[in-house]
């Protein structure tokens, strides 16, 4: 019973409480406000990106007595509801970047804790938030909470505005300096873009912060830190993201080259991100200044004075910033092309005297240096000065002779051929001229260290003109023609006093006729040009001139020049070509006959090739042939000739003629067999080393065989034979033959020029069979071998007999001929002693030469003594009055 009573009291208390509360709420409903209903209002906040923010909203939990409904809470953003319960709020806060909702009501809603929590705050979360409470059909709003999202700006950047803030914008940084010219204003901007609420920008120079100061002129934002200038700061909405701002600070500073290399730095600081510093923007100042140029000339000379034709080098050096320069050169204001170096080398001429050489170094600006070159040069006359002065007797003449030079030339006047100095001034005045004053005057200019120069000037007497004859001028039809009329006239005829006439009619200049004049000293050449000669242009032209002292005229005939037909030109060319070919063929045939084979009694036998005469020092000589002269007389004498091969011993005939002229002689046909033919190829004398061309030219026809006259060169021997007269395949050598000497009837003739005084005979050795009885190489009687003219250095490859005082070397025919070699008579040393000596023989009298030049002595021994000799020369004396003896050997004629 007690329990029932206790339970009844509890229920009664509850009911009374409810009734009392309901009555209270009913009574107080008319007195609820947002202030007493919302116990904790949200507040405005500034948050950083990616942070978490909570907007508080605490409400009283009441129940509507009529409906029994409690309070309803809603959150709105920028007057747009985002939800009144957790599910709605979370749904609003979901996006694709996160797996969860960034929005939430994390606390106990039944207790009225409607705090809105936003995680990973984004810029889009920024706005005005309101907590709205609905109760008993009434709306109660909390105070508006503004959520501000702070966005850090980008790293600051430096921008230079050129031309003192009026030019283009250039991004600068650590790798790109701020370039400014010396003495100009540098304008820099530091920009921190896309920040919120905007970065705070600070300047530093070489690590020292720039602090604004108050200048005396009260200019705001001025500073003095390393250099003077001023700063400005501004915020403006970003062009790309309008909700963000760009912070810009500008620096203007007046710089000079002392500020070169300073470090300028701009730092940016963002609110809410004080712990997160951004990379500062920095750059160096590069102050450019114009190049400072110096110039010098090498080699160095006092006052830069050089001689003409000297080679100099003008060299420039420069320092500036930047230090890479382009070079330009100017001489007297005119640019020198294709010179890009800092030096200029040239050869000085007189035209370069007082020339100004200027070099320009170009970087960002130009630097200039110049110097003046002085050139010393010799005298030179002005080309424009007159050379001819005309006057009449009794008049005065003033002649000028201006000359240039460095130093200034000294002038002297003289008459041509005279030594008297007439004047030492530039001008020479001749007054009251007389006949002897007319003529040539010499003006001479002198400059120290240079040779003088002179020029002729003339005082000519005025007289009537004279035209030089030029009667005929040939011209082709259709081609231009040029008629020249050379006029000697002092003075020159005036321009209106020269006329051309054709068939009596004056010629006027037009497209067909043109006039020209070519002046010379003392006259003029009048030229009439005819553009295209027509048939009507051929005829007589009259050239007439006047000069105030008389007149003259001459006729000039323009003649028709026939064109050479092209057929004639072609025919002539073809004919010449055929003649050349035929001539070459004939030349080859003749050369083959001369050089091809040696006749050996009808059998051809090739001879071994011989070495050239030049191999033996044989040079500078020639042999000339002449045609046969009918009045030539020859003599013949039979002689016996022997070879090393006894089977080839044969008689032959010596032919000679009188006179000093050379020519051809005809041999009777019945004497042809008396000529000696060398048929043996087994000659024991070593002839392979004999010089080529000892014998005369091979003759294809003995009846017309030519003989050769040597032309001496004044030395001790004739050096060579004409190669056109020689046959290398058919050369014979004067070896192993009997003497070929005259016996009588040789007429004395004047000696030719440069007859040598000796004959050089080349000896050879190792042949004891050189000579048999009545045979020899070359021998004379009574030293008459000396009377033979020299022909050349002979090759005696088989040796030579020694000298015996009382024996002839050999005998031939009906004469015994003795001679002397150059063996030393005192020591009786054989020739193989390697000595050579000349034996002088007295010349023969004219009677001896005409009657019996060579005498015989039958009492002499016939067999000479033979000794081997080395290869050394033996010299015989020569009487220069005897010459021209022809020996016919092996179809050759040798004239000695």
TrEMBL record:
GO cellular component: cell-cell junction; plasma membrane
Subcellular location: Membrane
InterPro entries, sorted: Cell_adhesion_signaling (IPR051275), Ig-like_dom (IPR007110), Ig-like_dom_sf (IPR036179), Ig-like_fold (IPR013783), Ig_sub (IPR003599), Ig_sub2 (IPR003598), Ig_V-set (IPR013106)
Ranges that cross the membrane: 7-25, 568-590
Bilayer topology: Single-pass type I membrane protein
Superkingdom classification of source: Eukaryota
Keywords in alphabetical order: Disulfide bond, Glycoprotein, Immunoglobulin domain, Membrane, Transmembrane, Transmembrane helix
Region (Disordered), start-end ranges: 819-851
Chief localisation class: membrane
SMART domains: IG, IGc2
Annotated GO biological process: cell-cell adhesion
Residue ranges constituting the Ig-like domain according to the UniProt record: 35-148, 156-286, 291-376, 379-445, 465-559
Pfam family, one: V-set
Gene Ontology MF annotations: cell adhesion molecule binding
UniProt biased composition (Polar residues): 823-851
Protein name: Nephrin related
Organism field: Schistosoma mansoni
